[in-house]
UniProtKB/TrEMBL annotation:
The keyword Signal applies. The keyword Transport does not apply. Residues 1-23 form the signal peptide. It comes from the Eukaryota. InterPro entries: 6-blade_b-propeller_TolB-like, Serum_paraoxonase/arylesterase. This is Serum paraoxonase/arylesterase family protein.
Length: 436
């Protein structure tokens, strides 16, 4: 009897330990993943304030180039392949589909709200797009940029093994089904195509998600998971103390190398963050934004003077009630003393709990939420506003958003901007006129 009571006590204590230790993580994950969340739709009274931008399929990331006033993004050519191959969501169903699909770089004019697809010179291989970043060409800072883009190409061994009747081994036994890497392009403003400069590969590039470019030779890259697939990957998402993913720094000494690994050195730049995901540029040149996706947190960090020897320092955290993908900072170009509308955009899926299933269905619906957060200059508190929400019928999914201000002098004095919203499984990017 005493033994039974002892066992019962142990079980009870274990239950209490699990509840108190992991309960807060589970509760927080339920909230950010959208379990039991009600769908919301931002009302757009004027039809002219909503524009669907054509030829912008599944553009996962987007950046505003202030010098030219243009947006740069990387998109897929069709919406079907991603439902069969997308390593960032552990979709390795059909690597063969990649051979017939190539993504592309696009520029979008915020004034005409039209997209222009750029040709690619010097590269005709698979291009499975994800995060990107742009940085000025130091030799032509006003006329040219470099574009870094994640590319999730499949492991050739896995492609071979996955072919029915031609498998040399069990496809599922291959631990690295993807050989994800980074492509570097050069673009002269006004040209109709980008030039492929080189491919960048390094052992620290494992599950790349996004890129933060300091210069053409210095970049940061997030690895969003330690585990590429399986139950441990799922646990890694929902257990916030599972801080196993990394942000790494890569130094590229040779921009002309044909060997993807040549001239590339790397080191881990920040650890102990959960679910490293999107990266963004902040208020100053040394501010970096790092998203802990399922945690619903944007970390504001400070870059080291020498990233080859020192790490990123996390200065402050901003948390919302959804997952956070690619954070961006909006700098108000029409700010006045006492009236500065600058702030951070934090986009995320309204029901991220469904995406693991929906990624395999190119006709599924995934809702979106975009928060705009600003720091109160008097109290230092963060004020958040849901600037846009959709149930997935106007745009499926969101992974990035950018805000471009409208000149009040051309807008009847009103402080407004065009909010560009795009998603990794969306058919089109959209632009919505919003109040600042």
């Amino acid at each position: 009897m005493a033994g039974t009571n002892f066992r019962a006590t142990l079980v009870a204590l274990l239950a209490v330990f699990i509840a108190t230790t992991y309960g807060p993580d589970a509760f927080r994950a339920f909230k950010t993943l959208g379990v039991r969340r009600h769908l919301e739709n931002t009302v757009i009274a004027n039809a002219a304030d909503f524009v669907k931008i054509e030829d912008t399929a599944q553009c996962e990331d987007v950046h505003f180039h202030e010098t030219s006033g243009l947006l740069f993004t990387a998109c897929e050519d069709t919406v079907v392949p991603r439902s069969k191959w997308f390593p960032p969501l552990a979709n390795f169903a059909d690597p063969g589909v990649v051979g017939n699909a190539q993504g592309s770089i696009h520029i979008i004019d915020p004034k005409t709200l039209k997209s222009k697809r750029l040709g690619i010179q010097g590269y005709d291989g698979p291009f499975v797009t994800h995060g990107i970043d742009i940085v000025a060409d130091p030799k032509e800072p006003k006329d040219a940029i470099y574009i870094f883009a994640v590319n999730h190409v499949p492991n050739p061994e896995y492609v071979l093994a996955a072919k029915v009747g031609k498998a040399s081994q069990n496809a599922e036994s291959i631990p690295e089904k993807s050989h994800s890497r980074i492509e570097l392009f050069h673009y002269v403003l006004g040209d109709s195509s980008v030039k492929h400069v080189r491919t960048i590969s390094h052992p620290l590039i494992q599950t790349p998600n996004d890129i933060y470019a300091v210069s053409p030779s210095s970049i940061f890259v997030t690895n969003d998971h330690f585990y590429r697939e399986g139950h441990m990957r799922a646990l890694e998402d929902v257990l916030f103390r599972a801080k196993w993913s990394t942000t790494v720094h890569l130094q590229i000494s040779d921009l002309t190398a044909t060997d993807a690994t040549a001239g590339v050195t790397g080191r881990v730049a920040v650890e102990n963050l959960h679910n490293n995901n999107g990266l963004g540029h902040g208020r100053a040149a040394d501010e970096i934004l790092i998203a802990s996706c399922v945690s619903g947190t944007m970390h504001i960090g400070k870059l080291p003077a020498d990233p080859t020897t020192a790490n990123i320092t996390i200065v402050e955290d901003v948390t919302v009630d959804t997952i956070v993908d690619n954070p961006t900072y909006f700098s108000d170009p029409y700010a006045k003393p006492g009236d500065d509308r600058s702030g951070y955009l934090l986009p995320g899926l309204s029901h991220a709990i469904n995406i693991g299933h929906n990624i395999f269905d190119h006709e599924a619906v995934d809702g979106t939420m975009v928060y705009f957060v600003q720091k109160d200059p008097k109290t230092g508190a963060w004020n958040e506003r849901l600037i846009f929400a959709d149930d997935g019928h106007r745009i499926r999914s969101v992974s990035a958003s950018v805000l471009v201000a409208i000149d009040p002098a051309e807008n009847g004095g009103k402080r407004q901007g065009w909010l560009f919203v795009t998603g990794f499984v969306s058919s089109n990017m959209i632009a919505v006129k919003v109040d600042l």
